[in-house]
Recover the amino acids of this structure.
């Protein structure tokens, strides 16, 4: 693996050396390295590109890394990854895609991730997207996450896209049974002429299911972001969607929230705020000795942390 | 250390500060007091560079700073704790104390010390976001802790006691005394509180956009409590009510 590839891995998966535990590294559309453990199996799909990740019931304190890196332009990589998490397992899954495109052709990765959490299973899922490269070729990432939570299962999803992705459409669908819980935190930053569109579609089907979506984003320069959410409360449940955006330069953000209570005991909240950095925040940091530019950076970094 | 010469400031056809002349000496604890709306906060903002005077001159440490930016003044050693602290989505108490101290290398124990001084348990607060989740009094204490970490030659506190509970009042006063001893700089406190007036070396009385009186504490205290009640605003309001009746 060369320097570019190592840096991509570090950016998206915090991996400097070979990761601990189970992993599957995909490079330019092909398998590059894989490790399985006694409790975590990774199997290449036969009918389409992608892998099945099978985690045995009661597996605890283990992790799976499945990074994807693209360093060639003109490649359109589509994969289907299915996760089967056994009852009462409690694991961390780190996915992510890094593109280094120094060509003038488009490099694209569309990952379709489907999670099946059995009763009482718990996962933390971290997904980072990152793009770089001197080429004029576009860097496109269209992740789709489909989440099926059985009774009392819980999932925490952290999704981050900080730099360099020309265009992205990120869709997340969740179907939630009794007592299940889902917490999603999303951080997006777009610059230049980039576009990012996020869709959250959540069905709170089971009694006492709950979802919390917190999206924070920054749209700089001429970039455009769209946030669409639709949370359906079909039982006694709780849903909270929070969407905060900072706009700079000619950045634009469209927020289109929808909450739908189909049961009298459903409690749903949506909060959305879009605006530029408050002047008094800049002034406060300047009185502490920062320049306006430094103050802006601190505020943005803190906001996206 | 600081000299204001003939400062005038008006907005919306209203003269908010009228030929203000004021000198703050080295190593002094000065309390500025005066009726609501008399121009105290405006004066503080002018010293910090947040507002610019229409005319007049500001000299700090022998240097004319009238045209310097907020950042330049902050770097020269002027600090200002806001009357209404600013909230930040995303920045933590620790971030703000680090920025105040001017480096991310401030030791965790030093950050804890400044928090302890304002009566906040560091463990509980260091990693909290300075957002709407904090109470008014907590925000006020964090604001003071930031200035204690900044260690400026001249620090202005705008009504630091507002929203701080009675029990903590004595601790708050010891924060100012400790800062005064440690930094050997000057502290200017804008306040309406007698107990704060009592720790001043000097008191400045501002009324209606002017420095009405400026002198040593003892001299000023007797004058303030004899003469200035009731304030001019109340008188106006009374007339107003009469007119309506
Ligand atoms: N930018 C501005 N535009 C218009 N009026 C202003 C502006 N800034 C201050 N004022 C007015 O100037 C006057 C002085 O305000 P300032 O905040 O300095 O008073 P203060 O002495 O600090 O009062 P308080 O004790 O209530 O804090 C007020 O009447 C206020 O409404
Ligand atoms: Mg004021």
């Amino acid at each position: 693996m060369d320097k570019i590839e190592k840096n991509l891995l570090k950016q998206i998966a915090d991996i400097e050396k070979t990761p601990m535990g189970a992993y599957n590294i995909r490079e330019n559309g092909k398998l590059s390295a894989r490790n399985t453990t006694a409790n975590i199996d990774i199997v290449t799909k036969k009918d389409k590109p992608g892998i099945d990740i099978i985690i045995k019931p009661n597996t605890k304190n283990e992790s799976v890394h499945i990074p994807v890196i693209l360093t060639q332009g003109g490649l359109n990589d589509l994969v289907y990854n299915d996760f089967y998490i056994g009852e009462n397992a409690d694991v961390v899954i780190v996915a992510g895609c890094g593109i280094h495109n120094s060509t003038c052709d488009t490099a694209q990765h569309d990952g379709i991730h489907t999670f099946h959490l059995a009763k009482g299973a718990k996962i933390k899922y971290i997904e980072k997207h990152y793009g770089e490269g001197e080429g004029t070729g576009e860097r496109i990432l269209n992740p789709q996450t489909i989440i099926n939570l059985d009774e009392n299962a819980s999932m925490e999803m952290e999704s981050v896209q900080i730099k360099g992705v020309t265009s992205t459409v990120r869709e997340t669908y969740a179907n939630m049974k009794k007592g299940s819980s889902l917490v999603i935190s999303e951080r997006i930053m777009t610059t230049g002429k980039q576009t990012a569109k996020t869709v959250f579609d959540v069905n709170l089907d089971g009694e006492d299911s709950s979802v919390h979506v917190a999206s924070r984003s920054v749209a700089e320069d001429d970039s455009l972001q769209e946030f669409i959410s639709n949370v359906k409360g079909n039982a006694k449940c709780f849903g909270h969607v929070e969407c905060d955006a900072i706009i700079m330069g000619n950045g634009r953000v469209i927020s289109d929230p929808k909450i739908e209570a189909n049961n009298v005991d459903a409690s749903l909240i949506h909060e959305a705020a879009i605006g530029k950095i408050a002047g008094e925040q800049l002034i406060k940091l300047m009185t502490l000795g920062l320049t306006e530019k430094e103050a802006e950076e601190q505020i943005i970094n803190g906001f996206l942390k | 250390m600081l000299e204001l010469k003939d400062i005038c400031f008006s907005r919306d056809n209203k003269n908010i500060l009228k030929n203000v002349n004021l000198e703050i000496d080295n190593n002094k604890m000065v309390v500025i007091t005066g009726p609501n709306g008399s121009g105290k906060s405006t004066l503080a903002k002018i010293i910090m560079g947040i507002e610019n005077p229409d005319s007049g001159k500001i000299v700090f440490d022998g240097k004319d700073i009238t045209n310097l930016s907020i950042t330049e003044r902050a770097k020269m050693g002027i600090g200002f704790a806001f009357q209404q602290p600013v909230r930040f989505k995303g920045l933590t108490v620790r971030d703000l104390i680090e920025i105040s101290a001017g480096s991310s290398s401030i030791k965790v124990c030093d950050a804890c010390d400044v928090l302890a001084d304002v009566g906040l348990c560091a463990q509980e607060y260091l990693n909290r976001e300075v957002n709407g989740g904090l109470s008014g009094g907590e925000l006020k204490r964090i604001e003071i802790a930031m200035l204690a970490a900044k260690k400026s030659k001249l620090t202005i506190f705008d009504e630091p006691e507002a929203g701080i509970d009675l029990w903590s009042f004595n601790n708050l006063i010891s924060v100012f005394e400790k800062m005064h001893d440690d930094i050997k700089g000057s502290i200017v406190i804008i306040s309406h509180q007698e107990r704060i007036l009592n720790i001043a070396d000097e008191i400045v009385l501002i009324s209606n956009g002017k420095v009405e009186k400026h002198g040593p504490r003892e001299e000023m205290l007797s004058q303030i409590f004899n003469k200035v009640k009731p304030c001019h605003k109340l008188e106006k309001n009374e007339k107003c009510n009469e007119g309506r009746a």
Q: What stands out?
A: Residues B 11-12, 16, 36-42, 83 surround adenosine-5'-triphosphate (ligand 1) (CB under 6 Å).
